[in-house]
Specification:
two-stranded antiparallel sheet, alpha/beta, Aspartate Aminotransferase, domain 2, Aspartate Aminotransferase, domain 1, 11 strands, binds pyridoxal-5'-phosphate, 2 domains
């Protein structure tokens, strides 16, 4: 009987397929760096920054070593530290709140919207009240463009303006997405992104970038990136870090940026097929009016009462990998549970952490492979 014919697992993300598509262009870009040997601050770094500025519409782009450094440097450049409150969604990757805590400031966790998974402006207002009651000074808010979809920047921006907070957009998952016709990178005072390989625009190692329209802030970021150097190289004028993007990664990103638009379109096709195939059995992600997504993740919510581990196991035996982003919201994690949460608690973040699961998503997920995922999901739910 041949009911156990092994089938190739569907890749969760497929960096190999992209590598094959880019082939020689990446080999040649890397070879050029190996030939000129300017591994730090090589010409590709400035070239990439100019291309990213053009792509996003931001006036200044400062590349850096990771998305976490991008957030940390943006907070440092704005003088964030002890006694300051910085508001973050709790349902996010840990680096959002971690960067705040690293400066000595207090991350104050706020809730997210049940349909977009992004920061809820009403909870942000409650969080600001919580911070003030605790004697903290509200300074900044970090909306996250989670799973690739832009946050509601108008709603967050209005609360921030009323309270005198500056906005640091964490676009680590959303770079390439837009809000009301404008690409991310131009919302708030400063935007941070990551080029970790699994992000929609990833390099072949760690990398990140910071976007701003403020020339003075950009200059401060460039100083922080190299240990706070001043115009005299041997007189450091502020604290900084080793925060540079290396030339090899910049050269790789220049090649990947050329196909990024095309990949975003392909990811959107994949998302449409999922919505058609699964929309009547699970809660599929919704893109809010005026927003676009780059689909860093395709995250569904399982029907009430579904055994999530059992569901994941049923998919796994059929060669369908899944992942849970995020099984614990930040305020539920050991390192962060003592930080304040907005008054009223974070019930949506907690519900999402208990019922979300992410399916394979990448630009190279073809129709037959995706049919397998859809059939497996429906089968596991008895639908
Ligand atoms: C990945 C990620 C980061 C951190 O990026 P790194 O490059 O891994 O440091 C920050 N915020 C969010 C929301 C992320 O998904």
């Amino acid at each position: 009987m041949n009911q156990h014919i092994p089938v190739e697992p569907v890749p969760f993300i497929d960096i190999g397929a992209q590598r094959r598509r880019l082939g020689k262009s990446i080999d040649e870009a890397v070879a050029r760096v190996l030939a000129h040997c300017q591994f730090i601050n090589g010409p590709e770094v400035t070239q990439l920054e100019a291309l990213l500025a053009e792509f996003s519409g931001a006036k200044h782009v400062v590349s850096c070593a990771s998305g976490t450094d991008a957030l940390l440097m943006a907070l440092m450049a704005n003088g964030i530290g002890r006694g300051d409150a910085v508001f973050c969604p709790s349902f996010t990757f840990c680096a959002t709140g971690e960067s705040v805590a690293l400066t000595g400031a207090t991350p104050v966790f706020v809730d997210v919207d049940e349909t977009t998974f992004n920061m809820d402006a009403a909870s942000l207002e409650r969080g600001i009240a919580t911070a003030k009651k605790r004697g903290l000074t509200p300074k900044a808010v970090i909306p996250v463009d989670l799973f690739g979809q832009s946050a509601d920047h108008d709603a967050i921006g209005a609360v921030a303006a009323a309270e005198g907070l500056f906005v640091l957009d964490d676009a680590a998952q959303g770079f390439g997405a837009s809000y009301k016709g404008r690409r991310l990178g131009t919302f708030g005072r400063v935007t941070a992104t990551s080029f970790f390989p699994a992000k929609p625009l990833g390099c072949f190692g760690d990398g990140g970038a910071i976007f701003t329209d403020d020339a003075e802030l950009a200059a401060t970021l460039r100083s922080i990136r190299v240990h706070g150097q001043g115009s005299d190289k041997y007189d450091n004028v502020r604290l900084g870090i080793t925060g540079r993007l290396d030339t090899m990664q910049a050269a790789i990103l220049i090649e990947k940026l050329k196909i990024f638009e095309d990949e975003i379109a392909a990811r959107n096709k994949v998302a449409e097929r999922y919505a058609r195939g699964l929309g009547n059995v699970v809660t599929v992600p919704q893109v809010a009016a005026g927003c676009t997504s780059v689909w860093a993740q395709y995250t569904i919510r399982l029907p009430k009462g579904t055994d999530r581990d059992g569901f994941a196991a049923a998919l796994k035996v059929q060669g369908i990998p899944t992942a849970i982003y995020y099984p614990k919201s930040m305020h539920q994690q050991t390192a962060y549970r003592d930080f304040p949460v907005a008054d009223g608690g974070l019930p949506v973040s907690e519900r999402l952490s208990s019922d979300v699961i992410s399916l394979p998503m990448h630009a190279y997920l073809d129709e037959p492979a995706q049919e397998r995922v859809i059939r497996a999901v429906r089968g596991a739910l008895g639908a």
